[in-house]
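Next comes the chain:
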Amino acid sequence: MRIPWIRLIATSAALVLGSVLCLAASPPAQAKSRVKLKRVRCFHQPTYLTSAPGIAGVFVVERGGRIRLIQGRKQRTFTSISGISTGGERGLLSVAFAPDYASSRLLYVYFTDRSGDIEIAELHADPDGLHADPGTLRPVVIVPHPGQSNHNGGQLQFGPDGLLYAGTGDGGGAGDQPDNAQNPNSRLGKLLRIDPSTGAVGIYSIGLRNPYRFSFDLVSDPTQPRIAIGDVGQDQFEEIDYLPLAAASGANFGWNDFEGFAPFSGAHPPTAADTVKPIKTYSSSGAACAIIGGYVVRDARLRSLFHRYVYGDFCTGKIRSLVPGLGGARKDRSTGVRVRDLSSFGESADGTLYATSLDGPVYRFVRRR
């Protein structure tokens, strides 16, 4: 991200503020909002939330290396991983459970190691699926990320094809001076596709700056799975990319030849020919600073958001939604709710939508009556 989001909570004063916010009530919704946020629980710098096949509850990822399992009013430490670098924008950034987790007990984590490199590793959970021994950690992919502490990407998701997808940042700094995102021989600034069973890693898409969060849309057209990517911009535009997953194979999203729709003056020289254009951009010249990509909502209880793509911005905390389309986005509007220091969205197995704040709280979206 352009402004290191971890920097905002690196001081003891900010950590104290986070404790205060965790004791406070859920943020109020605007008068016309049809949804509200219900505070679930507080954590230490949560970066992600997800669920696991066959396991009740949700898993909350904490930046420092711990993953917590929340089941109703009970919580437990699912695992705690050491050897994680947490400077700048680094840390434990996401977890993905294998589609056959109920039988295989395999899961995968995305973090920055002590060298600052991006590591995607496998863990094996106990037979009951409620605890994973960090001693079982096995590296699957290590992407060198020398020098800079920002633009680490951070998302892991299993796709509808059963393979594991990961979004990596361009290597950090500003302007992608090494041209990593356009370099087909670099795994930086890419969407990777991984077969965990064999360890095979392929570059699926190129030309991304910092795809910190992406998700798969399986509801807009069940016959044609789609991918939605929130790609953090340089200093002009944040963007949302949205296209069929099959069309993303070999696609070039344009960075650093383009930032959003605009040619980027720092490209040296421009190399991109046919590039995928975003369906939505917004200016980051004001209070906004970094898009946090979300999900196409599949929780029918959230009528005002059902089948709409939800996204937000880290700096403003404002959460918006739109109708995604292959030809562009429609009906972009405010949800009426906001989350201070928004770090991620997440889903439970039944499609319940959550949001996490680096200040500590995790919120659940509920219909406002």
